[in-house]
């Protein structure tokens, strides 16, 4: 009976015969109840300190668990075991090459799937690896890219399934946008597009920090593509208000500060709250810093009066690393254009330039603003 293997593993290394016997219990030819008990044992092993070495020496177990996920309906323990195993890079790649991405996607997309959230968690762990993220980005079910279908059910959430909340899908989207192919998929302009636009409301989704953090991370990653900045700030997407609103507080701004500011940011209510999570605030600021890469976009940000929002944020902010990121954005916005590179993504900042941040801190602390000369776009 497979139950005795648990105590054997804890007390001493498995003998080869015992290993093979346990592996047989995981076979699709074994009785379902025996296979289920064996899976419980294997799940316990994956949670132990010795598990990494054991499964690297006995890789057939990994393939057997993947097969169970692909061929059975009730796979909670099998998925949990794979979630534990995918913390190791080598084993994660083995699991991916076992052909599990398609199966996980189909499970998440099915309203009848009993365990959609564990499936999402496994997909998060897998897509931390660039090769897995690339494979998922290229995967299609029918005529549609899988990532577009996943965003669709992510946005529908409870309307899609009653068996989970799909919050972890936000981190799948975050992971795939760490590679260029993933960013291109999320920023698609074709008839399959409108992906990034559907994600924007989740920058202020109070019910789940997982959703907010994953979506904000994905938006930050998309901002790394300077060729897309004009489109991201266009009326077709309107990224800027969705990045700035979580950073804005209840402070009253004068007419000069608000002149040119997006309508959604003007006359905010006195109970307006900023994003409570420091890591998410930092990613929002990093998105702005990426947007500052080229001169035309810097001019748009100045005209949109990004500075007053950041000035008030800096006064309120208590986390030093978030303050530092805020100061970096302000430094670029108030710098003379003659002193800035055409594309800051290609710039190595000198020590002399970085020292200017001390002056920026003083300006922010005093609540002062820059006198901005706008360069008119030529027709």
Question: How does the SSE layout of this entry go?
Answer:
Elements: H1 4-11, H2 16-25, H3 32-46, H4 51-57, H5 60-71, H6 76-85, H7 89-97, H8 100-109, H9 116-127, H10 130-138, E1 140-141, E2 144-145, H11 146-156, H12 169-176, H13 180-186, H14 195-199, H15 209-222, H16 229-232, H17 239-244, H18 255-258, H19 278-291, H20 295-303, H21 306-316, H22 320-334, H23 351-355, H24 357-365
Antiparallel strand pairs: 1-2
What would you say this structure looks like, in words?
- The protein has 379 residues and is mostly helical.
- Helix content is 59%, strand content 1%.
- The chain has helices at 4-11, 16-25, 32-46, 51-57, 60-71, 76-85, 89-97, 100-109, 116-127, 130-138, 146-156, 169-176, 180-186, 195-199, 209-222, 229-232, 239-244, 255-258, 278-291, 295-303, 306-316, 320-334, 351-355, 357-365, and strands spanning 140-141, 144-145.
- Strands 1-2 form a two-stranded antiparallel sheet.
- A hairpin with a 2-residue loop joins β1 and β2 (144-145).
- α6 runs parallel beside α9 (116-127), α8 packs antiparallel against α9 and α22 packs across α24.
- The relative contact order is 0.06.
